[in-house]
Amino acid sequence: MEKLLHNINRRQFLKTLGGTAATLATATALGAKNPFAEEGEQQGGMTYRTSGKGDRVSLLGYGCMRWPMIKNEKGEDIIDQEAVNQLVDYALAHGVNYFDTAPRYLQGLSEEATANALQRHPRDSYYIATKMTNTNDYSRKAAMDMYRQSFKRLKVDYIDYYLLHTIGGTRRDLTAQEVFDKRFIENGMLDFLMKEREAGRIRHLGFSFHGQDDGFDYFLSYHDKVHWDFVQIQMNYVDWKHHSDSKNRRPQSDASYMYERLTALGIPVVIMEPLLGGQLASLNDHLTTEMLSREPSRSIASWAFRYCGTYPNVMTVLSGMTYMENLVDNLSSFAPLKPLTDEEVAWLENEVAEEFDSFPIIMCTACQYCMPCPYGLDIPGIFAHYNKCVNEGAVNRDRGSKEYRKARRKFLVGYDRSIDRLRQADQCIGCGHCTPHCPQGIRIPARMREIDEYTEFLRSDISPL
């Protein structure tokens, strides 16, 4: 059965498992133990999961893509190292031991800042994950330079978890499979990384996936050769089965399909975007009221985190915690984890997800891969403001409605306060430089035109704000 599962596509997989695939979330995710990721002991409250090689990994993982930033004396954005140190110290003291970074994060600054904070602690008290992000230059030299640079920046002689990053991306002239082959097969890098794992310089080798079903099956087929130690996927209660139905994103693999396939193969799962780029931390009034009535003492974000943690083959759930209040709140979700009930999981996956997906938000996760924009646009900031206004009912074209004036003021005043006028959507010339870098497949220039058109519609109303 296991051999068969390595080499079949989505339709064959579901047919082979029959009702099992459809109910795997209930059979293996909601309270049932499995041999791949049993819940570990409680230490300081934190819930741990066990990797395939015996690591006790904190269920809450620290995503190091959103460290706090400050301005230096030249007015340049730099990482606030003192704040990072405080966050890392607090996280370690409360049981978090998995830290996920990458060469590309924060314009190349994340790896070193993460290392500066972690090296003040014993090396065996934490696990470092980093990635090969060779999405622009597919040459062996570029990949080797990136790999070696990570060791220098991280100040380590081994990397605990190493990922082939952003697998599933396409180009206008290449399919996802062709891109993968050029990035890792034709240049010999996958064979090299497997040898590095044998030598102990890489302890676990995996990949992070952004793409569609056929691509996921293709990359997973390498399991026979590579034996993937873990795989990182985007999973939350919206993406569990609604992802491919969204009007604002390209069709991608449903999280349910990916999770089920990985579980069947015994591959531990790392979760990225449990909050969908922060979108699931602040919902509309109706959903917020319902969640608070069910759990008055918990945040809206905690529902998304506990949802992911309830699935037992999830090794760790990544969260980019910029501020101490984010870290403290997230710790309350995992230290210890209170798993959701079957009814709560079904409610999130169906009713909440459907209502969420009915709102016309832009599925930006603020990953910053589109940045810097050659023309200075604050792309993630623009999307964040627009989405916030959508969630708060402040996007309204009906000049005759009672709520129009309030919504207009909220959108325009908030837009000018949060985004510099020279970095707003009207500065987009449609060059398309950003589009190939977006893991969500957002047609960024088109969305910028839509937001600019809506903004101009509001500004053309000459009545006072």
- Number of discrete helical segments: 18
Assembly state (oligomeric): single chain
Order of helices and strands: HHHEEEEEHEHEHEHHEHHEHEHHEHHHHH
Cα distance spanning the termini: 65 Å
Low-pLDDT residue spans: 1-7, 13-44, 244-251
Question: Which fold does the CATH topology of the largest domain refer to?
Answer: TIM Barrel
Kindly give the count of domains. 2
Main beta-sheet strand count, sense and barrel state: 8 strands, parallel, barrel
Draw up the topology in text:
Layout lengths: L1 H4 L4 H8 L1 H11 L18 E3 L5 E3 L1 E4 L5 E3 L5 E3 L1 H13 L4 E3 L9 H9 L8 E6 L7 H15 L4 E9 L8 H10 L3 H11 L2 E8 L3 H8 L2 H4 L3 E5 L20 H11 L3 E4 L12 H10 L5 H11 L3 E6 L4 H11 L7 H16 L21 H13 L12 H15 L25 H16 L6
Parallel strand pairs: 3-6, 3-12, 6-7, 7-8, 8-9, 9-10, 10-11, 11-12
Antiparallel strand pairs: 1-2, 4-5
Short description:
By secondary structure, the chain is of the alpha/beta class. The chain has helices at about 1-5, 10-15, 20-30, 80-95, 110-120, 140-155, 175-185, 190-200, 215-220, 225, 255-265, 285-295, 300-310, 325-335, 340-355, 380-390, 405-420, 445-460; strands spanning about 50, 55-60, 60-65, 70, 75-80, 100, 125-130, 160-165, 200-210, 230-235, 270, 315-320.
Give an overview of the whole structure.
This protein has 18 helices and twelve strands. The protein is of the alpha/beta class and 465 residues long. The protein folds into two domains: 356 residues, NADP-dependent oxidoreductase domain (TIM Barrel, Alpha-Beta Barrel), CATH 3.20.20.100; 81 residues, no CATH class. The strands form three sheets. An eight-stranded parallel beta barrel has the order 3-6-7-8-9-10-11-12, surrounded by seven helices. The longest helix is centred in the C-terminal third of the chain and has 16 residues. The radius of gyration is 22 Å and the shape is globular. The N terminus is likely disordered.
